[in-house]
Structure formats: C-alpha cells, structure tokens
Design a protein that fits this description.
Blueprint lengths: L17 H5 L6 E4 L5 E4 L5 H6 L3 H5 L7 H5 L13 H10 L1 H79 L2 H48 L1 H147 L3 H55 L5 H13 L4 H9 L10 H5 L2 H4 L34 H10 L2 H16 L17 E4 L3 E6 L5 E9 L7 E6 L7 E4 L11 E8 L7 E9 L2 E11 L4 E3 L3 E8 L4 E9 L5 E8 L5 H22 L5 H6 L4 H9 L31 H5 E3 L4 E4 L3 E9 L5 E11 L7 E10 L3 E2 L4 E8 L4 E9 L5 E7 L7 E4 L2 E4 L4 E8 L5 H5 L3 E2 L4 E10 L6 E10 L3 E4 L2 E8 L4 E9 L5 E6 L5 E4 L4 E4 L4 E8 L6 E10 L4 E12 L3 E2 L3 E3 L3 E2 L4 E8 L14 E2 L10 E5 L7 E4 L2 E4 L4 E8 L5 H33 L4 H14 L3 H11 L2 H12 L4 E13 L14 E15 L3 E3 L7 E8 L4 E9 L5 E2 L1 E2 L8 E3 L5 E2 ...
Parallel strand pairs: 4-10, 12-19, 21-29, 31-38, 40-49, 41-49, 51-59, 61-68, 70-77
Antiparallel strand pairs: 1-2, 3-5, 5-8, 6-9, 7-8, 9-10, 11-13, 13-17, 14-16, 14-18, 15-17, 18-19, 20-22, 22-26, 23-25, 23-28, 24-26, 27-28, 28-29, 30-32, 32-36, 33-35, 33-37, 34-36, 37-38, 38-43, 39-42, 42-47, 44-46, 44-48, 45-47, 48-49, 50-52, 52-57, 53-56, 54-58, 55-57, 58-59, 60-62, 62-66, ...
Helix pairs in contact: 5-6, 6-7, 6-8, 8-9, 10-11, 21-22, 21-23, 21-24
C-alpha cells in the first residue's frame, strides 16, 4: 500500500502460520500488497522444509500469543508429578508392565491433547487476525469513499462560485467599478487555487481507494480458500468444549462427594454446638440466679450506705454553715483590725513627720550657727550624725550584751536544776530490779499502744536510754529569723554546757574510769559474734587492770585521739529525700605505735538512714590510713546529727556526722539606696542585690510598704542570733530523740509550731529575762497604696521571681522626680517560704526644678497628608532672673520632615519667646521616624528638644500628628472578563478603597461604549478608610479580543488605573429567550415555560453575514451541534430535554418546569417548635396540678423547694425527648408543612442556568464518553421564580395532605373525610385527577366549584381486596394551583400466634374412662380484632365420605388422615373451649383441650383447626394421647405395630387369671455403636426406656408401680447394662431405664448381636415385657 493507511497486514512467521497452512492443499500462494510487502502461503508438503530453516532457539524466542498464557494454565497443561530417576522408572516398568504402558498412553494422550490445543490456538488467532484486517480494510474503504464524495461536492461548489464570480467581474467591469472588479478577481484566483487543490486531492483519494480495493480482493480470495480450515477449526473447538464439559462433570462429582462429607461434619458440629449451648444455658441460668441473689444483698447494703451518706452530707452541710459563719466573723474582725491599724499608722506617720520636721528645724538651726561661726556646716552635721549613730549602736550593743548575759545565767540555773532531777531519777532506778532490754522495750511499746502517759513509760527506759532534757525556753523563743542564718555556723565545734554525754554516766563523779557503755554491752549480747564479745572485754580488762597505758599523739602517754579522720566532719549538705549519697573518709593512725581499728556502729537515731561499710585492715603502723565508706539514704526531710563509733586498741573514738536539709539564707547587700540630687524630669537608677547562700530556692516579691523603718535593729538582732545562738540551737535540738518525743506525746512538727508561734513578752524564760523584741511577732501587715513619693521612687521591671540556691538577683530601683523636693520610700521583700523572714530597705533622693518650660508641651497638628506643608508656633517661657540662650533641636530621624526656626535663640528674664514649627511629611516618614511613628495607628509623636545653656537636662515638648495618605486603591488591579458571548453581559465587582483618613471625591472618565460602571455612573464620594464595591458591566458587540483601561480620578487630580481584557464570542447556538419570568406559582404546584435552542449556522462566509467564532479566528464548523443545561443543585427546576442536538437551520423545543417546595430544615424546625409548645403547655398544666397537690399535702418548705427544683430540672430534658419523637413521627412533619404553607408570604428567587455547547451529535457518541463541550460557547438562561401560598389548603387533621387509612382487613373498607378550603380572594373551578379504577381508593363525592373562603368535605374510601400496601395521589386542580392529596393504606390479613411450638399437643397417658385437660394461648399480633372459630377434623364433614381402603392397611408413607383412634361411644375423644369468639388487638385468648378416652389405645389423635372470619385457616394443631386400663406403662424402643387400630374385636380377659395366660409383650431396642476413625475410644451406645405410673382419681390399694429387670447377668457378659435394674415409680411420675452397650474385644462387626431380658411391672396388676436388644457397630467420622 502506497498511501498513508493506518491499518496494514502484519507479516506472519512460518512457525506462527504452521497450522493454517498445513490444511491448504493448493500450491504456494503469494499475497503482495501495494506497499511492497509480501505474504507467501506454502503448501503442507513444503512446510517441513520451511520450518527447518529456523533454529529451535529462534522458535522458542518468539513472543507469546494473546490468550496463550491463560490456556497454558488449563488442567491439561498441569504437570502430573516430578520426573523420576531412570532406575526407579526401570524398576517400576519391570514390576508393573501393564501400569507403565497405561501411564505412557496417558502421557502421550495428554501430549497430543496439548499439541492439538496449541495448534488450535494458533490457527484461531491467525483466522481472527485475517478477519480483523478484512474489517479494517472495509472501514477504510468506506471512509475513503466518503472523503471522495465530499471532495467532489466541494469541487462542484467551487465551480459554481467561480462562475458566479466571473459573472460579477464582467458586470463590475461593464459598470466601471475597478476596485470591485479587482477584489472579485482576487476572489476568483483564490477559488481557482482551491479548485486545483481539491482536484489533486480527488486524484490521491481515487488512487488510494483503488489500492485498498485490490488488497481487499486478495484478502477475500484468501478467506474463501481458508473456509474449509475455518469449519474444521470450529468442529475441533466444539470437540474440545465437550471434553472440557466431561472433565467439569467429573470434577463436579468429586466436589459433591466432598460437600457431602463436609455436610456430615457440619451436622456433627451442630449437634455438638447444641449440646454445648444447652450446657451454657444451664450455666447461664445458674449465674443469673446467683446475680439476682447478690443483687438483693447489694441493694440491702446500698440502702444502708445511702443512709449513712445522707447523714454524713447533712453533718457536712451543718459544718459548712458553721465554717461560713466563722469566716464571716473573721472577715468582719479583720476589717475592724485594718481600720484600727490604718488609724494607728496614720498617727505614727503624723508623729514621724512631726519629729522629722523638728529634727530638720534643729539641724537647720545648727547649720546656720556653724555657718555664722565660719565653719563647714556639712562636715559638722556629718560628724554629728556619725557620732549619734555610733552611740546608738553602742547602746544597742550594751543592751544586747546584758540581755544575753541574763539569758545565759537563766539557762545555767535551769540546767543545774535539770541535772539534779536526773541524778535523783538515776539513783531511784538503780534500786529497782534490773530487767532485760527486750522486756523493757516490749513494756514500753505496750504502754504506748495502750495510751499510757509519758511519765509512766519514762522510768522503764531511763536506765538504758535516759530521756534528754526538754528544750530550754531560749530554744523555744528563737524566731524563724535566727533559724535561717548562715549554715556555716553549724560547723562550729566549740563545747557548750548544753551538750550531753554520748555514754551514759560518763560525767558522773562516781563513775569508774574507762567504763564500757551499757548500751554497747546490750548490743553485743543481742547479736554480736564471739570475737566481738571477747576483744572489747579483753581490752577493757587490760585497761582496768593497769596493764595497758593510753598513749597520746605525742608519744608521751598523754590523752589524745588514736585516729584522726579526714575530713573531720562527715557532712551531707542539701540532701533530697529518696536519693542515695556516699562519702569516703580516711582514718589515720595518730599514735606512735601499731594500732587497729574496728567499726562499732552509728547512734540509734541514725541507724535507719546511715550505713557504714568498713573492712578492718588489721594492724596499722603509725601514720598509716584506711578508708571508710558512709552511705546516707534520707527518708525524712529533717536535719540529723550524730557520731560514727569506732573502737581502737586504746579505746573508743567517734567521727561526727551531720545531715543538713536544704534551707534558704537570704540577705540584701544594702539597707539604704541614696540617689542624691536630681533635676525634675531626669531619671536615675540603682540596683540592690538579693543573695541566697542556702541550698533551697524560693520565690521573692518586692513591693513598696508604708511600715516604719525598724529594719536596722531587727537585722542587727538577727545577725547577732545567727552568729552566736544558731550553733547552740542546732546542738540542743537534735538531742531530742524520737523515742522521747513519742513518749511525751509530741512530735517534731509540734516543736516547730511552738517555735513559730512564740510570742514576744512570754514569761516562760523566767522572771529575770527581758521581753523579746517585736521581730518575733507574726502579725499580718496590710499593704497601703503607694504615695506620691513612692511613685517617684519605684521598682524596675523585675519585682518578683525565683531565686535559686547559691545565687543572687539584681533588682533595679528607679528615681524619676516629678515635683521638686525630697522623696523617700520604704520597700519590703517577702518570700514564699514561710521560714524566710521579710527584708526591708529604704530609698531616698532630692529633686530640683528646671528654669525653662513650655506651656503647651504637646503640639497637635491634627491630620496631615504626605507631600503637604503644615506650620505652627511654639511658645517657650522662662522663670529665670537672667537671659538664657536656647538651642532648638529636632530628633535626627525627623530632620528631613520637620524643622524648627530659628535653631538658636535667647529668652529674656521672666519672659517668653516663640519658635516656628514646619512639618512636611514625605513618604519615607514611616521608615525614617522609626519608633516615633506608629504604623498601625499612623500617629507621629515627635520629641523636640530645647537645650538651655548651663543646664544638664534639656526641656522637651512633643509634636503630635496623624499622617495619612491620599491613595485610592482599586482591587483587583487587573480584571479578566474571560470569554463572553454577544448575547450576554458579564458583571464583575471592583473594590475602591480609601486608605486616607479624609473623605475624597472620585469619578471614572473616558469609559468605552461596551463598558458601564454603577452606581451613579462611576462618580461619588468615599469616606475615610471606606471600601466601595463598584459593578463593572461588560457587553461585547462583536467576536474579537478587547483590551482597555478604567481611569479613576480623585479631587486632587490623582489618577488610578485598572487594566481590563476580555474575549467576545459568537456561539454556534442561540436561545430564543435568555430570560424567563414564571408566573406566581403556588407551593407544591408546577409552572412550565418553553423556549427554543436555535442553530442558525448555515454558511461559513464571513463576508456576507456574521458566523460563529471565538475571537476573530476562523468560523466554527457547520454541522449538528449539541447542548446541555446544567441547573444549580437543589434548585426547584426541571429542564426537559436537558441534553440534545440541533441540526443547522433547525431548532429544538425545551421545557422548563418550576415547582416550589418548602425546605426540609424549615419544616423540621417548625415541627420541633410545635412539639415544644405542646410539651410546655402540658408540662405547665402538670406542674400546676402537682403544685396544687403539694400545697394540699402540707409538706415542709424544704421539700416544696426541692419539688420546684425538680420541675425546673425536668424542663430542659423535654426538648431532647421531643426531638426523638419528632424524628420518629411523620404526622408532625406534615402538620408543620401545612402550617408553613398557610403562613407562607411569598418568595422570589433568581436562577442562572448555564447551557454548554459542543460540536457533534450525541447519538453518534457510541463509546459512552461525554462530548467535549467548549467553555467559551456557553449560553446562560436567567429564570425569575416567584412562589406564593397555595390557593387550596386542607383544614382538617392539622392541614396534613397525606392520609393514612392504616391497617384495614381484606374485604373491609374504611372512609376518611377531608375538608378543603379556598383561601384566595376569588372563586375557583375545581377538577379532580383520575384514580386507578382497579385500585383500592375511591372518591365518593366530587364537586366542581369552590367560592372564596368556602370549604368542602371530600369522602375517600379504602377497600383492599388483598394484603397489599397501596399508595395513590389525588390532585385537586384549579386555575391558580393544584393541591396534591396522598392516599396511603395497608390491606392486612389476620395474623395469630400460637403458644404451642411445633403444632403438636401431646396429652400424655390417661386411664381409660378418665379425662385430663391442657391449655394453650392464641395472641392477636395484628392491629385489628379477629373473629375465630375452633374446628376438629373428627367432627368435620370430611369424615363422612367412604374410604376406599382402611388406613391401617395403607402404608405409612401414604397415610394422610390425622384422625386416629376414637371413642367407641361415638363422642369425640378431644374437646376444646371456647369454640368461637373475638380476640382484640394485642390481646391473648386461653383455650382448654380435654382428652377423654373410653378404652385403651396408644393412638388417639385428632386435628384442631383455627378458622378466622369463617374463611381462613390460621393454625392446625395435632392432638395426641394414649389410654391404658391400668396405672402402669412403658415407653421407648422401636415401633413394632401400626398406629391405627385393626378392625378385629379386642378380646376380653379375665384380669384375675391374666398372669396365667398373658404372654410377655415384646419391646425392640436397637443400639448402634459408632466406631470413630480417631484413636480415642468411642462412647457406648445408649438408649432409654421410660416406666411410668398414671395419676388417677380412682381409689387404688397400690400407690406405686414397681419394676424389675431379669437376666441382667447374661446381658453384662455381652456388654449390655441396664440401670436401674429395679425400682418404684410414684403416681404421676416416670423413671428412665438407661441401656448402654459397649462391644467386647472379640465382637464381630459383620454380625449384629442379639439378646433379651424380661421387664416386669407390678401395680394393680402384673405386666411382663420382653426387651429384645439388637446391637451393631457402625463407622463414623
């Protein structure tokens, strides 16, 4: 093929065409195409030669064919197994030659089948490809012919146009119109060139068509030759299909067998599940019973608990009231104290000021006297002040020394008295019998647990652990200030008189030298080793005997420590509870001889916290050392002190140990901050340092206070106590052991509280002690508001914060004088830690006034704009008595915008001068001004400076101005209208924003004709900072591109521009109406309007008329054009057709329907409000009723209050309930819809519906893809939709338009009446729509006219003929609207539920000629009353016909009569009451069935039918019963007789001689032992027999039935067992005899086992049964 055809015949390789060409018996064929490609078809005889040309690897590398992968996965291609080794194959072939042959045959068969399928696949693919090429060639030829026809038509059209142009040229030449003739000549030449091009195209298309036809002929010839091959292929495919069906059938059989197996397993699992479920049910029932029992118990305890809770709440309420009253009293008392404190403070301040005034006057007098004498007054006053301070300090120091001496004397006297009392107690204790330490300890613990007083427990432990003396009054009086002193003082090792000996009795005069402490002896007795006991004893004996001598450190035998520790004090500082601390010390031998060291332990109160690890090094030479590891694990946050005890050769020694908690130690570096003299207006700053040298941080706060300055004496006293008394306090306080504190009934916290609550002036110190200073008084200090001086002297930014351990904080103090004079302020520092005392300091300074000032320090220039000049004058006055030189200075940032003239001037004495201020703001002002300009508020605050000669502080004034711009901003700056058709106008909004703080006038000038700006044609006034929305309307007149600018001018001739661009479009379709105004449409009515979509595109000549195009491009293609309307979602509009196609010159009719409806949200809201109003009115009535009842019952006021509160609390819960009811009720929604429709006032909506346009026909789009609609050719339809209230409304049933007839029984009818009213102001003619003539709804009384305001009643009938849900709509049509009425109804058949499950009622065993009754229930489950009647089959007409064959002669499978044995008397053996009646909806009816047999039979039966409305049978109940002549019966076993009695006469027996003539009755019992496939043993086969005794009203000498089994021994040998073998049965009871069988080991499963036993029953007579057992083994899975 030589033309550019997209479809070409693909060449096939010889291997791919093997199967196709093998069936061609003709000679070689060659297909040669026009493009030079050839396809050679060779015969089958030469195929082998052709295939031999290609190697095997080339054939293997050919691409896989389509569908080949799927076929290779078919079952015939599955590999049967792995290849076996050659030896195994040979061995198997030798053993089983027949099997090997069969396997070879199957494999060859499979290989041949695979080869055939492969061949068929290739052949089918090649034939399909040939058909595809044929089809493509055919399509190409059809398209080529179409193009050829179109080209010829264009040639004909061009020829006609050329002839017309030639005629016009001749006419113009004759008329002498040379220009027109030249233009027409150019047109003629263009037509000639187009004609030549079309003719060339026709030639090319003709040649391509011929070539395609030749190829088509070749392909058709080959298809004809391959027709035989195609038929053979079809036959082979059919054969393969049959083969696959056979394999599928075989596979289906296998799957069915597997399914059956799975079903059996499922049945077994179901049975197991049922059994498990039954067990779970029993277990669940037991759990429920337990839960109920526990619930009852819990309820009882809960009631008791609630009673206690209520009682506790009542008590708590009373306590809270009392607490509130106490708080109110405390607040009132606090107010009184505050008032009194204020008065006292005011008095003290007045006194202080008076004293200060007197002192100032005195100092002034002294100063004047010294000046009069010619001396230096300042030096004299300074020396005098220093001398006074020194004398005051000396007096204070002497007073403190005397006070301290008196305290020491009192303390010594107190200790002497305590020591005397202690000696007296020790001497008394020695006379008592000595007890062991364990006995003393247990006695002390028992006394303490029993609450014995501390005095009784004291003597028991005094001999071993004497209680230390109580804390002295000095310790109790130490304030919290002294506790927070320098921790370094704690390390003082000086000996004080308050220290206690570590070994009891060491300081006694009668104590022997080097006596071993008693507590160490007891400790060794309790748990020491033999070496621990022997070594100290031997050492003590040596020392007591004088054989050893104590050697000092100097070697001269003097006293001294045998070992020195490094460090000398084990100090754990600033510990945290829970952490572990370790320290290592070195013990150095300080003697001049060999010595050893042994650890004794730590003191008793440290054993819980301190652990010492020490490995004795043995003998140490002089100067040698050893290490000791001390571990401290704190558990309580308190200070600890003690010693670590060691034993050396020369005696015991100890290393002191101390554990200190974290404390705060705070101080100020100065108490007076002096600013000196400062000019008014200047600012000075000083810093004060707060230092914490303790290990605990805290929060601090600085604030001014009005307290008098008494900090000097307090600080001195505090420092004195810190330096001297703190070591004493820390030594005395740890001596109070925990055992003594517990014995005295106090605690460490009590001691701390006693210390903190110590009052000044306490007499506990003794008569000779003075009163404590006021620093220990903890009275609340009221903060007074800061005075004017404190405002001048104030704190900096940092006034509060956290101070860490071992750190300091600097706090700035700022002095900014406002008025001349002296200023001072007192400040106080408080801390969050209550143990830290408050600190005080004072600040003072003096201020002097400036001689020059500006009367108007603030110059306001109002609102200024950029680029304009503003001027003002500033007046400067002087109070000086001399002329002053002034220099006017503008801040550097504003020198380019502001100027002061003159820059230098003079002001005369006691006069004034003025300076000229010029301000011209530039646009760089916000960046240049920096901090002086607020960019957000546009406020300029420019500080101006006036420098006065010989004056440090300048005089300043501030220039205020609001600087604004005159800019108007148009946004957006560029407007793109996009593509707009010539049939519409596009409106966009432009925002005009005034950034100025002044109003401005504006106007748009020079607008083009196709643009309009509204409102006011683009002119107006814009307010400050206002934004106006302007509508810019663009409506193109032609299809071209538009680009223009909108110019806006302000009143100061500033121009602001907006660039606009748009594209005009002439769409191929147009609408007959671009705007539709619907009539006023009632709610739920429909208005329809029509319009046309017109396609007026008939020619592409743009010279004669306008053609559809985008911009000024070429015209759109002429042909069918499609459109689609896209209505907005949720709009009440329907457009039909929404999609369509319009041919050129045609138009399409489109209908637009408008149906207004109410929004669902509004309907739901109205329904909720209606329900809320109803609920509120109902609740109001209920509340009023309940309140009336409460008042009548004379309840307590509190209960009435609780009742009203319950009423109020219940009201908010109702809306949720109402909302739930609303969601579940449709009637409320309909009522709300009707109410809204009546109150509807009208609504107007405007919708714009776009209509998109696309070239082509919708019907030609077979692929299912949507057409490509052009967004530029979109048309728009504007719809005006007014909605009004409906003219006809339903006034009955709350205005609902849906009428539900409810449930109506089939064959009955229900009638509803509907009231309709005309609410419009004119009469209306009414028509009704036609209902379904075969439906259940009927309109009974139609009418034709309704007057204004008149109402009519419609009667609607619903009569269902079958059980169905019916729904129809009845339209009431008028001229102004339509009222739709929805009719809904349900036809119901009667439904009853019976309490009998399974439809069988078994009456059990009864004695003949006696009766028994049973009852059951029928419930009406439908919503209609049901009439019923009860019928027995034995009394029905069906029993009267003659039977062809008796029932007992027919087989059981053909028996259809359920009526069994009947009474001989002719009366029915079963009866039921009541026979007929009516059951109301939801009610239950009880029925009683009586069974009265008159002879013995086991097959009494009958059928009871429940008939409804004498037509329909609802239930059929099978009644069964059995009768015996005697009171015993046996049930179970396999049936041996028929269930119908024979026609033979029952023989009569002599019951007295029955035992002689009666033969045993047979009972057959078959047992199947299931042998499982698993290894686990199978359960035995089990069957049951039931022996019962019938309850009777007759008197009988025998009340029970006895039974016994004979021959059980023989049964046991065969594997049978019957339990129980004998027993008795009471009347009305039954017992079960369980029969089980387990096969013996030698049992033959192919032969069933047979055995028998006799079962005898003894009651009023004796009966014997022969039980025959047949057992077999069956297999199971």
């Amino acid at each position: 093929m030589r033309h550019s055809s997209p479809h070409r015949l693909r060449r096939q390789g010889p291997c791919q065409l093997w199967e196709v060409l093998s069936r061609i018996s003709a000679d070689d064929l060659i297909l040669e195409f026009s493009d030079g490609s050839k396809l050679q078809l060779i015969s089958a005889s030469r195929m082998a030669e052709a295939t031999g040309l290609l190697p095997e690897d080339v054939l293997r590398g050919l691409p896989a064919l389509e569908g080949e992968a799927d076929d290779l996965k078919s079952p015939e291609f599955e590999v049967e197994g792995l290849a076996l080794p050659a030896e195994d194959v040979t061995a198997r072939s030798c053993r089983c030659p027949g099997k090997v042959a069969d396997a070879n045959a199957r494999s060859s068969k499979k290989q041949s089948a695979a080869t055939d399928s492969h061949r068929v696949l290739h052949l089918q693919r090649d034939l399909n490809y040939l058909d595809k090429v044929h089809e493509e060639k055919d399509v190409f030829i059809q398209k080529t012919r179409g193009e050829l026809c179109a080209s010829r038509q264009r040639i004909h059209l061009l020829t006609r146009q050329q002839e017309n142009v030639a005629a016009e040229v001749a006419a113009e030449k004759e008329a002498g119109n040379i220009a027109a003739a030249g233009r027409l000549g150019a047109t003629s030449s263009r037509l000639c060139s187009e004609l030549d091009g079309e003719r060339q195209l026709v030639g090319k298309i003709t040649s391509a068509l011929k070539e395609s036809q030749n190829d088509m002929w070749h392909i058709e010839v080959e298809q004809g030759r391959l027709e035989a091959v195609r038929k053979a292929l079809q036959e082979e495919v059919a054969a393969m299909g049959q083969h696959l069906q056979a394999e599928a059938a075989e596979q289906l059989c296998k799957e069915k067998a597997a399914a059956r197996k799975v079903e059996r397993g499922r049945q077994l699992r179901i049975r197991e599940g049922v059994r498990t479920q039954r067990e779970h049910g029993l277990r669940h029932q037991k759990l429920v019973e337990d839960a109920q029992r526990h619930h009852r118990i819990a309820v009882k305890f809960l009631k008791a608990s609630l009673g206690r809770v209520r009682e506790r709440e009542r008590q708590e309420e009373m306590e809270s009231r009392e607490h509130l009253q106490r708080r109110m009293d405390a607040v009132l008392s606090l107010k009184r104290h505050i008032r009194a404190n204020r008065e006292t403070l005011q008095k003290s301040q007045a006194w202080g000021q008076a004293r200060a005034t007197l002192a100032e006057q005195k100092a002034q007098a002294e100063r004047e006297a010294v000046l009069a004498q010619g001396g230096d007054a300042f030096k004299h006053l300074s020396h005098q002040r220093w001398r006074q301070e020194l004398e005051a300090q000396k007096r204070a120091f002497e007073k403190e020394q005397s006070l301290r001496k008196r305290r020491i004397v009192a303390r010594i006297l107190k200790e002497a008295a305590e020591e005397g009392r202690r000696k007296t107690r020790l001497s008394a204790a020695k006379a008592r019998a000595r007890l062991t330490l364990r006995d003393k300890t247990w006695r002390y613990i028992s006394d303490l647990c029993e609450g014995a007083p501390a005095a009784a427990a004291g003597p028991t432990l005094e001999t071993e652990y004497p209680a230390p003396p109580k804390a002295t009054h000095l310790v109790q009086a130490i304030s919290s200030e002294s506790v927070q002193g320098d921790p370094g003082g704690a390390a003082s090792q000086e000996v004080d008189t308050l220290a206690q000996p570590e070994i009891l009795g060491l300081w006694n005069e009668d104590c022997e030298a080097r006596q071993v402490p008693r507590e160490d002896a007891d400790r060794r007795l309790l748990g020491g080793s033999a070496l621990d006991e022997a070594l100290p004893a031997r050492t003590g004996a040596r020392l007591r005997g004088g054989r050893g001598r104590r050697r000092g450190a100097d070697g001269r035998g003097g006293p001294g420590r045998p070992f020195n520790s490094k460090p000398g004090l084990i100090h754990f500082k600033d510990f945290d509870v829970g952490r572990v601390y370790k320290k290592t010390i070195k013990l150095i031998n300080a003697t001049y001889s060999i010595n050893f060291c042994k650890l004794v332990g730590v003191e008793a109160h440290l054993r819980d916290f301190i652990h010492v690890h020490f490995d004795p090094p043995g003998l140490l030479s002089a100067g040698m050392s050893c290490d000791v590891l001390v571990t401290f694990k704190p558990m309580v946050n308190k200070d600890l002190e003690g010693n670590v005890l060691f034993l050396a050769q020369t005696g015991e020694f100890s290393v002191p140990l101390k554990c200190s908690t974290k404390k705060c130690s705070l101080s100020l570096d100065k108490q007076l901050v002096d600013f000196g003299s400062l000019v008014v207006g200047e600012t000075a700053s000083r810093t004060i340092r707060l230092t914490n040298i303790g290990g605990l941080g805290t929060k601090f706060k600085f604030f001014p206070t009005c307290e008098p300055d008494t900090s000097t004496s307090m600080l001195k006293m505090s420092s004195f106590l810190l330096s001297d008394d703190k070591s004493l306090y820390e030594r005395v306080l740890p001596s109070l052991s925990e055992q003594q504190l517990d014995g005295d009934g106090s605690s460490q916290a009590d001691i701390q509280s006693q210390k903190g609550s110590a009052k000044p002036g306490s007499r506990e110190l003794g008569e000779g002690l003075p009163v404590e200073p006021e620093r220990t008084t903890l009275t609340p200090i009221t903060e007074m508001p800061p005075s004017e001086e404190q405002m001048e002297i104030r704190l900096g930014e940092v006034t509060e914060g956290d101070i860490g351990p071992f750190s300091s904080v600097k706090v700035p103090i700022i002095f900014m004088p406002v008025t001349p004079g002296e200023a001072q302020a007192n400040f106080k520092v408080t801390f969050k830690n209550q143990q830290c005392p408050a600190l005080y300091f004072r600040a003072r300074g003096a201020a002097v006034d400036a001689p020059v000032w500006v009367p108007t320090p603030h110059v306001d220039l109002k609102i200024c704009t950029y680029g304009r000049l503003y001027q003002d004058s500033v007046l400067v006055q002087s109070r000086s008595k001399a002329a002053l030189r002034l220099k006017f200075e503008v801040c550097r940032e504003l020198r380019a915008h502001m100027e002061l003239l003159p820059q230098t001037g003079y002001v005369q004495a006691m006069s004034s001068c003025s300076v000229q201020l010029k301000f011209k703001p530039r646009h760089s002002l916000p960046n240049d001004a920096g901090k002086y300009f607020d960019k957000e508020r546009r406020v300029l605050e420019a500080p101006m400076t006036i420098w006065v000669a010989d004056q440090v502080k300048p005089v300043g004034f501030t220039v205020h101005a609001v600087v604004t711009t005159s800019d108007l901003e148009l946004s957006p700056s560029e407007v793109d209208f996009g593509h707009c058709t010539i049939y519409e106008a596009i409106r966009t909004q432009v925002t005009l924003c005034n950034h100025s703080l002044l109003p401005q006038e504006f106007g748009f000038i020079g607008l083009p004709k196709f643009v309009d700006i509204q409102p006011n044609d683009g002119f107006g006034t814009i307010q400050p900072l206002e934004s106006l929305l302007l509508d810019v309307v663009f409506q193109p007149s032609k299809a071209r591109e538009y680009s223009f600018e909108l110019v806006c001018k302000s009143e100061i001739n500033r121009q602001f521009r907006v660039s606009c661009r748009a594209v005009g479009v002439h769409p191929p379709l147009e609408l007959s109406h671009h705007q539709i105004k619907f009539r006023a449409t009632a709610l739920y009515d429909t208005s329809v309007a029509t319009l046309y979509v017109v396609n007026s595109h008939l020619s592409t000549k743009s010279l004669t008329h306008e053609v559809p195009c985008v911009r000024s491009q070429g015209a759109s293609l002429m042909g069918p054009t499609s459109f689609e309307f896209l209505p907005p979602p949720g709009a009440p509009l329907t457009i039909s057709p929404a999609v369509g196609t319009v041919l050129p010159g045609k138009r399409c009719l489109v209908q637009v329907a408008f149906r207004p409806v109410l929004p669902d949200e509004e309907i739901c809201r109205e329904a909720l409000e209606a329900l809320s109003r109803e609920a509120e009115s109902k609740l109001r009535k209920d509340t009023a009723t309940q309140r009336r009842d409460v008042r009548q019952q004379s309840l307590a006021p509190m209960r009435l209050h609780n009742q009203e509160r319950l009423f109020r609390n219940s009201m908010p819960q109702n809306p949720e309930l109402q909302k739930q009811e609303l969601e579940a009720s449709c009637d409320d929604l309909q009522a709300a819809q009707a109410a809204l429709a009546r109150a509807f006032e009208g609504k107007f909506n405007k919708f714009v519906v776009p209509c998109v346009v696309a070239a082509g026909d919708v019907k030609d789009n077979k692929s299912g893809e949507s057409l490509r609609f052009s967004p530029h050719n979109t048309l728009y339809l504007e719809l005006w939709c007014p909605a009004v209230a409906p003219p006809l409304v339903v006034v009955s049933d709350k205005g609902k338009t849906t009428f539900n007839f409810g449930d109506v029984a089939v064959g009955h009818r229900s009638i509803k009446k509907v009231s309709i009213q005309n609410i419009c102001c004119e009469d209306l003619a009414v028509e009704f729509s036609v209902l379904n003539p075969h439906g259940p709804f009927v309109l009974l009384n139609p009418f034709s006219r309704l007057r204004a305001g008149e109402g009519q009643v419609l009667a609607l009938c619903f009569s269902p003929q079958d059980s169905v849900q019916a729904r129809e709509t009845l339209d009431v049509v008028s001229r102004r609207g339509t009222l739709p009425l929805t009719l809904v109804g349900t036809g119901l058949a009667s439904v009853l539920s019976c309490s009998i499950r399974g439809g069988i009622l078994d009456m059990g065993y009864v004695l003949a000629r006696e009766s028994v009754s049973s009852s059951f229930k029928l419930q009406n489950d439908c919503s209609l009353p049901i009439k019923f009647s009860m019928r027995l089959d034995s009394l029905g007409p069906a029993r009267s016909h003659d039977r062809e064959l008796p029932q007992f002669l027919a087989s059981s499978s053909h028996r259809t009569d359920v009526v069994g044995t009947q009474n001989y008397s002719g009366q029915s053996v079963f009866s039921v009451v009541p026979v007929e009646g009516v059951i109301e909806p939801g009610r239950t009816q009880d029925f009683t069935v009586t069974f009265s047999p008159d002879h013995e039979s086991l097959y009494f039966s009958d059928r009871l039918q429940v008939v409804l409305f004498d037509k329909k049978v609802s239930h059929q109940i099978l009644l069964k019963g059995a009768a015996r002549e005697h009171m015993m019966f046996v049930e179970g076993g396999d049936p041996l007789d028929v269930p119908v009695e024979s026609l033979t006469v029952t023989p009569t027996f002599d019951w007295e001689h029955r035992e002689e003539v009666e033969e045993p009755r047979p009972i057959l019992v078959t047992l199947d032992y299931v042998q499982l496939d698993t290894d686990m043993p199978a359960p035995p086969a089990i069957r049951e027999l039931h022996v019962g005794c019938i309850r009777s009203t007759q008197l009988s000498p025998k009340k029970t039935v006895e039974f016994s089994v004979e021959g059980t021994a023989a049964l046991q040998h065969k594997g049978f067992s019957m339990e129980p073998s004998r027993g008795a049965v009471e009347r009305g009871q039954a017992k079960t005899i369980t029969i089980s069988w387990t096969p013996a080991a030698d049992f033959d499963p192919d032969h069933p086992l047979t055995a028998s036993a006799l079962l005898q029953l003894r009651g009023d007579v004796k009966e014997t049964y022969k039980v025959i057992f047949v057992a077999q083994v069956v297999s199971g899975s």
